[in-house]
Amino acid sequence: MLQNQLETLILQALKKAMKKGDLPKIPLPEITVTRPRREGQGDYSTALPLQIVKPVNIALKEKGESKRSPMQIGEVLIKRLPPAAFLERAELAPPGFINFYLSPGWLAQQAGAIVQQGPAYYRLNLGQGRKVQVEFVSANPTGPLHFGGARNAAIGDVLARLLEHSGYQVQREYYVNDRGAQMQTFAMTLWRRYQQLFGLDVEIPPDGYPGAYMIDYAKKIQATYGDTLLALPEDQVPARFRELGLAIVLDELKADLALMDVHFDTWFSEQSLYDDGTFARVFAILSEQGDLYEKDGAVWFRASQYVGGNRDEVFVRSNGEPGYFASDMAYHYHKFIIRGFDWVIDVWAVDHQNQAKRLPPSMKAFGVDPARLTIVLYDLVTLKRGGKEVKISKRSGDIITMREVLEEVGADAARYFLLSHSNEARIDFDLDLAVAQSNENPVYYIQYAHARSASILRKAREAGLEPSAAHLDLLTCPEEQALLRKMLQLPEVVAQAVERLAPHYLPHYALDLAKTYTQFYGHCRVLSKDPEQKDLTQARLMLVQAAKLTLSYVLSLMGMTAPESM
RNA sequence: GCCCCCGUAGCUCAGUGGCCAGAGCAGCGGCCUUCUAAGCCGACGGUCGCAGGUUCGAAUCCUGCCGGGGGUGCCA
Description:
Elements: H1 2-19, E1 44-46, H2 48-62, H3 70-79, E2 87-93, E3 97-102, H4 104-117, E4 131-135, H5 147-164, E5 169-176, H6 181-197, H7 213-225, H8 237-259, E6 266-269, H9 270-275, H10 278-288, E7 292-295, E8 298-301, H11 304-307, E9 313-316, H12 324-338, E10 343-349, H13 353-362, E11 373-378, E12 381-385, E13 388-390, H14 402-409, H15 411-419, E14 427-430, H16 431-436, H17 442-462, H18 478-488, H19 490-500, H20 505-523, H21 534-557
Parallel strand pairs: 4-5, 4-10, 5-6, 10-11, 12-14
Antiparallel strand pairs: 1-3, 2-3, 7-8, 8-9, 12-13
Helix pairs in contact: 1-3, 2-3, 4-18, 4-21, 5-15, 6-7, 6-8, 7-8, 10-12, 14-15, 17-20, 17-21, 18-20, 18-21, 20-21
The protein binds one RNA strand of 76 nucleotides through helix 2, strand 9, helix 12, helix 13 and strand 14.
């Protein structure tokens, strides 16, 4: 990344200035280079002179020399700045900024480099092959995914995509909570619905799942098994219907998630932790370490010694059932110790914030550095219809499913909308508004820019014109240069999104990029029949191709389609 | 009570120390014989919840307060 290269150059300049005696010796500061917001402040900027003016003057005073201003320090740094191909000049700006300008010629050449290297041009190697698991969605498998799950799916999937493109080896996992009380209730509701299909006068359990989808599940069982299951011995009912129901729900989840182009590598069963001895092993380890104790008939995990504070966690409930903390501990033991992930990212809704705070420090019980477990919290999605809130919970029975919303607004628009908010922001999603505004949705603007570039390239081919890197130096007009600059910003955006695990940088950048492209499109005619314009046309075609590739790349990072025509 | 998140233009939201605060949408004024007008150009629009503090510099960091949401030992 240019940003990093610049930081290195500035550091070299500082070291050299100190070595040559232009500046007194001071401890090396952290160099930060930013992109200024305004025009005329360069492509990059650093406030280093302002940052070091104090230590510099202290050092000068000790040597009995007179004080320097930030501007004087900046002047020295610029003088000592090593040359670089991408850099045209560095300018001093009051009260002590150094602004860097990219070389227009170098910029123009990047159009060729981007096309030649393809997406590899943008790929980063932040991860250096480290194994990271992104676990997301993981909604209870007791019904269809509601729209809140769609946000989890969008965030998790895009994080996975970002990490993949940044040199990590990524596994996407869905944690299936296929044990515990809610699973039991689910199985019994299904059983009753099944019986009802044959006219039996039975009620679903009082705390059961009232939603109509349960009837659909029962019908699926009926379609396969007819009435044969009515004769099932009562003691076999829960296990059998749990198994049948789970299979149906998982199939449905997979199909629904596929609508959003979300796919998992592994579907990890919670129950398997108990079947394969992982839980027993974790219990033994913690027990041996003295991390477990009994109180009020329950087994407690001494979380306080790892997390701090004085609160411990119920490990095995007084009814003998392991609690969620126990499952989470066993599950993460499996992730780190048995499967050996270097880094694990769990994507959770904000209502799990307490657990999110307590689980990572608890990893110390396994000798695992808590920094290897990152929990990404996102706020909930509130659905509205015509300004009125619609409940999306499963328990109320009447839920707005992810599938419904996707069918109404489309996967691309839904993804864009869900991604464009920062994780911490609550989302108000008005379905009526979303449908009404779908034509003004930024997602179409971005895709339109891509379709237009595809169209130009098609027309060029028909006219026998090909992109060429022979005269890229002709790409000097402001719109062309602005487009090149914007494209080169992509790696920085990706790096920032990865660093902060914040996918929302992507949609904002994508909109920016599309806007810059469309301005170029409006101001710089690409195809020309004038033979004298051939060199410029070919250079611009190269730029169009590079822009198309960049647009399609950022769209793919967001899991969105890049249409060739609209 | 304590803890976490949010409060920025009419609306939806970006912007986590840098030089005069941004975008989309809505509204206003221009632009279709030229590569897709799902577009372009221009103008309008803000006490960055409030009050202090730290800093050369604060929407951004700290403290307090107000408003909204969430969490808080046997649901996950």
